[in-house]
């Protein structure tokens, strides 16, 4: 992978990305190539996206695409960053929710929406992320939300990173659920419904008394999607409670 070329393409709004000037005038734009690749990935997963398939959709020869992007690895980076940019989080000076907690909730809401709309995003690495404007906008937004509430700088950075990791980990689970349902044509609730015999025949209430008490008192009454949303919200709010407990109340909005 050509790292410098990949970064140049990701940050092409800072200047024209290199493109061949030989031959005929380009028929396409890089944004068209990326958008087509994203649409294909949304329909069947990023593993099915190939340069030849994209070229077919755009009505050009496969080799034509290589005048826009070096290869699929760099294209995947561009795809990831494009859908992260769809979160359209407020930038410096833009209107945003008044309280820092509401700002974090907005980040979470839009990140989850991006992963649900593009389930293949779950392959995005949190360890070696795509260093493009879409990712950076999210990180800038989060650090801005927590940097002025009375935390020391390193604690503010740790808080922002913790929120990002928590949200992306859950977004990945939601994306996996959507992807599996898309691939199998079966909802998660239907999958569990087919396994009801497990609870009737194999589940041992004496070996699982805490689970049994929770079940009998209605703790597991929610359907799968609702339970996942409740779990995510509960965890996020408790994380924000913990951060808030560390700050000087004079700073909290």
UniProtKB/TrEMBL annotation:
<dbReference type="Pfam" id="PF02909">
    <property type="entry name" value="TetR_C_1"/>
</dbReference>
<protein>
    <submittedName>
        <fullName>TetR family transcriptional regulator</fullName>
    </submittedName>
</protein>
<dbReference type="InterPro" id="IPR036271">
    <property type="entry name" value="Tet_transcr_reg_TetR-rel_C_sf"/>
</dbReference>
<dbReference type="InterPro" id="IPR050109">
    <property type="entry name" value="HTH-type_TetR-like_transc_reg"/>
</dbReference>
<keyword id="KW-0804">Transcription</keyword>
<dbReference type="GO" id="GO:0000976">
    <property type="term" value="F:transcription cis-regulatory region binding"/>
</dbReference>
<keyword id="KW-0238">DNA-binding</keyword>
<keyword id="KW-0805">Transcription regulation</keyword>
<dbReference type="InterPro" id="IPR001647">
    <property type="entry name" value="HTH_TetR"/>
</dbReference>
<feature type="domain" description="HTH tetR-type">
    <location>
        <begin position="27"/>
        <end position="87"/>
    </location>
</feature>
<dbReference type="GO" id="GO:0003700">
    <property type="term" value="F:DNA-binding transcription factor activity"/>
</dbReference>
<dbReference type="Pfam" id="PF00440">
    <property type="entry name" value="TetR_N"/>
</dbReference>
<dbReference type="GO" id="GO:0045892">
    <property type="term" value="P:negative regulation of DNA-templated transcription"/>
</dbReference>
<feature type="DNA-binding region" description="H-T-H motif">
    <location>
        <begin position="50"/>
        <end position="69"/>
    </location>
</feature>
<dbReference type="InterPro" id="IPR004111">
    <property type="entry name" value="Repressor_TetR_C"/>
</dbReference>
<dbReference type="InterPro" id="IPR009057">
    <property type="entry name" value="Homeodomain-like_sf"/>
</dbReference>
